[in-house]
Amino acid sequence: MKRIAIIGGGISGLAVLHYLKQRFGDTVEITLFEREATTGGTIRSIKKDSCLFEWGPNGFLDNQPYTLQLIKELGAADQLIEARPRAKRRYIQIRGGQRAVPWELPFKDKWSLVRGLFKKNISKDHSIDDYVSQRFSPSIAESLADPFIRGIWAGDIKRLHMASAFPDLKFKWFKNFRMRSFKGGMGEIIESLDKRYKQHIQTDCEISSAQINADVIIVATPAYAAAKIVEHLNPVLARVLDQIPYAPVAVAGLLFKQDAFKNKPDGFGYLVPSGANKEILGVLIESNVYEGRAARGQIMVRVMLGGAHHPAIINDSQDQILGKAIREMDSVYGLLANPIETFVKLWPKAIPQYEINYPFLRQSIAEQCAKTPGLYLCANYLGGVSFNDCIKNARSLSGAVII
Fold first, then answer.
1. Which residue, 155, 93, 108, is CA-closest to 128?
2. For residue 211, is pLDDT > 90?
């Protein structure tokens, strides 16, 4: 019987396992190896008493049919929830105050947005900063694109490559896509995949491709981990993978009583532009976004810190991260009491950065993989960093495997 080995049990690896089992059934032996005690990678939902803390992504847009189809196939569709209507109110922090996007932007910026929609032939082979400045205005790049990119990529718009970060971006009237999650948090989809394919998953198993006897090896780990795994198979590929940078992110979860604020937190939360020179990337009011994140009379928030502009966050202790998060909440909302529960998760290498040289790296990765029969790569440093991207790319790769 032919054998397929998947190394890495994050959402990419688990989704690949699902699609390969759909394709091959029991005609091929498929095993997933995960070095940690549990699968899920950056996705985990921590439940404690009355609150729920997401230490990674807190949801996804329902604009990707493959994601919704996967959830149905796992029998988890009845656990889906939508973001609350109040989450539609989103803010950007400008000079210490909160401005609703896009309604409270200055008129000149609103006009730049409208005018830019009709511009044609703006090359995307530039940094995001250059592209947005040319299409809209430098002001839009600074006040809107910058905090938006910090919120998604934790990155620097002057270094990220527009065509790589947003290859399919088209300016048109956007449909009313919704933010979705699960009643018990994003960890539910990991639990569903884990439960269904438990007999094909080995955890607490750090392994290299040299130790695996398989006809096909699919490496579904971050680039820096993949570099070590494939080194003996293709040293050139390993060196290329090692060149992909990652931005660090610290996530602080704070649970407050509702009356702990002078000014009650509103809407989805807010993002912070890099010009503010703060370690804070943004604040999400989780209990405003989804049900079940805090009990009645409580407010659950997540504060994101670090990113490409502030990599030194990796040197902070948990207490230091919590202190910075609490001071941010106090400066914006005015705290009358400390949080009643706290959580911290530090990701020293959280999000891959598709920087200006990324097209060259991506091409080199493809060329080297073509020279290494039986080796495939599937992770968020290829084809997009979002939860939806990971599902879509896993499905595509699973159909391309030759065995």
1. 155
2. no
